[in-house]
Amino acid sequence: MPQTITLSIDAMGGDNAPNMVVEGMDLALRDLPNVRFIVFGRSEQLVPLLEKHKRLSARIDLRHCDDVVSSEEKPGVALRSGRKSSMRKAIDAVGTHEADGVVSAGNTGALMAMAKFVLKTLPGIDRPAIASLLPNMKGESVMLDLGANIQCDAENLVQFAVMGEVYARNVLHIDKPSIGILNVGTEVLKGNDSVKQAAAILSETKLPIDFYGFVEGDDIGKGTVDVIVTDGFTGNVALKTVEGTAKLFAGALKQELMKSTLGKIGAFIAKPAIDSFRNRFDPRRYNGAMFLGLGGICIKSHGGTDGLGFCYAIKAAHELVTDQLNEGIKEDYARFSSEHHSMSLTTPED
Amino acid sequence: MPQTITLSIDAMGGDNAPNMVVEGMDLALRDLPNVRFIVFGRSEQLVPLLEKHKRLSARIDLRHCDDVVSSEEKPGVALRSGRKSSMRKAIDAVGTHEADGVVSAGNTGALMAMAKFVLKTLPGIDRPAIASLLPNMKGESVMLDLGANIQCDAENLVQFAVMGEVYARNVLHIDKPSIGILNVGTEVLKGNDSVKQAAAILSETKLPIDFYGFVEGDDIGKGTVDVIVTDGFTGNVALKTVEGTAKLFAGALKQELMKSTLGKIGAFIAKPAIDSFRNRFDPRRYNGAMFLGLGGICIKSHGGTDGLGFCYAIKAAHELVTDQLNEGIKEDYARFSSEHHSMSLTTPED
């Protein structure tokens, strides 16, 4: 029997909270028998919901909070005035080591600000990054940053590369993950200064990493590399572009099939195959963005997801805790950053 | 009978040139009876190919060039040393008004540098932009810039907005096209200074344009706006991300259908519907990126395309010439920029 893993849950974040949060916990419990939850939120809403889930209730420690961080709240304001909110209390539980990780579907900026304040960044990391898994032709890859850092210098990108590498090795269990920096086609212009300098540092480093070089937008779907490094602006746009294109395709395929009788019959016969296709790219399966570089596990669920999506966010947190990601990052980064630092000092500037 | 339109063609650009170029011209001629071509390239390669296409040969004026701009050539080098290349000669034909527009599948950076040098930018336009149509749930939208300008200030973005608006009105025939600036989710951080300032200018302008505000990556597929404005770095990544996701989906759907007998039978029965779906998103149909803001029509075909794709690039050039896009931009921009200029002067800075 594996050790019990305790996750603290912000029950009030997300469009369909707290219903979808309760559903998500219930679903997650089926596959994760060793998990228990500390749940923060309004008990008057949560108690009636939990009464319908007896098995789940037995694994929950409910902590009442009146305050909720709204989705419009600015990060700074939430940080100052949201000390008693369900989001903050859920993060605090990780800070006090009562919980092993936190999951919230609330306001991303507020969650990052609070998590950074409470959990601090790991030694050698200037800025945490938001990372997510993305499906591709070969399986999946991790992309970061997805919106925490709108403008990034070369050093930020190099740190993201190291965090992504450690994640891919420790959690995806890839022996020597390949790393690419997202850039525009080399034939036009070779990108901005940040990506050029970051590529130069990663190319010349003596760190035992597999730096592939630049990748382009279509390499995300191809699965050219295991880790895709980019600034938060480009990463956010690219991630949402993948999501939007996926929706467009799924919608248009259905539309075309339902237009004709033959289409409907064919779709009915091929239903298992089409379902398997849908399932493979179901965005809920990829829900649960990771805040990498913090002194604790923090997972951001998509605000608009449902119970199944939230369940996947819980599973992502569970996996990071199980694989002791932060221990990995801490050890590797300490080693990497000392080597990288000494390397930086000896590398001639160009 | 409509007036004859003359397009100059760089026959040597692209991975499968000149074969696919000749095929593309032949295909285009079927739908565009009023087109004729001035074709620049190596006659020893072109003559045998053209002998197979008698009808096409009658509509072609072949001009021999030995020189070819390679795909690795740097724009500056190509500009200085490529004066006798097929690409440059094809652009020159537009500069001398012998041709109404030029199409090339060659080196994007070299094509842009040469086109800018020969055709100049339109009055009031600092930097030309690369624009392309993209499919969405409602039809299609135009996105720019796609890689000509890696770093853009607010003024560049505002100019792109106006160029995109004029294109959507004159060529897509949308009465009052809506314009959005691509940004990250407002909940995290509200983007960089360029997008914030550009949005402020467009929000306050008295120009008769429909500025929607910020859009996110998933709005590309949704079709939230008719014109998506972005810097060349983000736009290039977003465009290629759409392409990569499209390929991933098409490939995975086929994979899932071919895995089982029922999948194969269903796919066979639904073939017309699936073909119609494929056709709707066939990237070749969207081939032909437009260089907007230049004193002449210049279309860049994807280098890796085939005859059908090159045919669509020719059609894109033909459409811009027919709809007299540049006349529209020139007139509108002269009006817009004088209004915008006087507006800028009276708007208090913040």
Helix/strand layout:
The structure is a homodimer of 350-residue chains.
Chain A: E1 5-10, H1 19-31, E2 35-41, H2 43-51, H3 54-57, E3 60-64, H4 75-81, H5 86-95, E4 101-104, H6 108-119, E5 129-135, E6 140-144, H7 154-170, E7 178-182, H8 193-204, E8 210-215, H9 217-222, E9 227-229, H10 232-258, H11 261-269, H12 271-280, E10 289-292, E11 297-300, H13 307-322, H14 325-346
Parallel strand pairs in A: 1-2, 1-4, 2-3, 4-11, 6-9, 7-8, 7-9
Antiparallel strand pairs in A: 5-6, 5-10, 10-11
Q: What are the low-pLDDT stretches of chain A, counting only 5+ consecutive residues below 50?
A: 343-350
Quote the average pLDDT of chain A.
90
Oligomerization status of the protein chains: homodimer
Main sheet specs of chain A: 11 strands, mixed
CATH architectural grouping of the largest domain in chain A: 3-Layer(aba) Sandwich
Instruction: Give the C-alpha Rg of chain A.
Output: 21 Å
Q: Total helix count of chain A?
A: 14
Q: Helix/strand-derived class of chain A? A: alpha/beta
How far is the N terminus from the C terminus of chain A?
A: 56 Å
Query: What is the number of domains of chain A?
Result: 2
User: How many runs of DSSP E, i.e. beta strands of chain A?
Assistant: 11
Largest interface: A-B, 71 and 71 residues
CATH topology of the largest domain in chain A: Isopropylmalate Dehydrogenase
User: What is the percentage of strand-forming residues of chain A?
Assistant: 15-25%
The helix content of chain A, as a percent range, equals: 40-55%
